[in-house]
Amino acid sequence: MGSTSDKISGAANQAAGKVKQAAGKATGSEKLQAEGKGQEIKGKVQTATGKAKDAVKGTVDRM
User: Fold this and answer.
1) Which of 24, 51, 55, 61 could form a disulfide with 33 if both were Cys (CB 3.0 to 4.6 A apart)?
2) Whole-prediction pTM
3) How far, in Å, CA of 55 to CA of 9, rounded?
4) How distant, in Å, are the alpha carbons of 3, 20, 45, 61 from that of 31?
């Protein structure tokens, strides 16, 4: 994946994770809350990966 697609996927996973967590809280489903938290963390990692790729590309471009 490219840096932009990593960041977009990351943001989407973070948003979906937050929705799942809220739905889990509303329904009392600890399983759904846990799934949401996991998906949110996955999204944060994807976003960070995209930012890291941008940083590496920027460094390489300056050389």
Assistant:
1) 24
2) 0.84
3) 18
4) 31, 10, 21, 45
